[in-house]
Design goal:
Order of helices and strands: EHHEEHEE
CATH superfamily: Histidine kinase-like ATPase, C-terminal domain
Strand order of the largest sheet: 1-2-3-5-4
CATH architecture: 2-Layer Sandwich
Number of domains: 1
Number of strands: 5
Strand content: 25-35%
Distance between the termini: 13 Å
Length: 127
């Protein structure tokens, strides 16, 4: 088995920065040969997770994307220790669906506390 393909970078707390995460996830997916459906799911989950970090994290967001032909993992850390929570369903709401989307589409996801805040991560099994 080959070494994972990894990208790490920092996002400023600006919603316009989320496009960098989407592009990076697509690039990593392509580099390890993931199928289009898996890639688009990963892009959606990364976009939701990064958007939450830049809107609510109160800091830069630190991103790590790691993938092999079997697993893709995205971690996004920020300095806000408050964990994301599922919002009650509201079809008229413009936001509040990120946790539900993670629960529905990710193979696994979670939150890990760290010294300065938290890291939200998700994985997709690809093989």
């Amino acid at each position: 088995m080959s070494a994972p393909r990894v990208e790490e970078f920092v996002l400023a707390p600006d919603p316009a920065e989320v496009r960098r995460v989407r592009h990076a996830v697509r690039r990593v997916c392509r580099d390890v040969g993931l199928d289009d459906d898996t890639c688009e799911t990963a892009v959606l989950l990364a976009s939701e997770t990064a958007t939450n970090a830049v809107l609510h994290g109160r800091s830069d967001a630190r991103v790590v994307i790691s993938a092999t032909a079997q697993t893709l993992r995205v971690e996004i850390a920020d300095d806000n220790s408050r964990h994301p929570k599922a919002a009650p369903p509201d079809i008229d709401a413009l936001d509040g669906r990120g946790v539900a989307i993670l629960q529905m589409l990710a193979t696994a996801w979670g939150v890990r506390d760290n010294d300065t805040g938290k890291t939200v991560w998700f994985e997709l099994a690809t093989g």
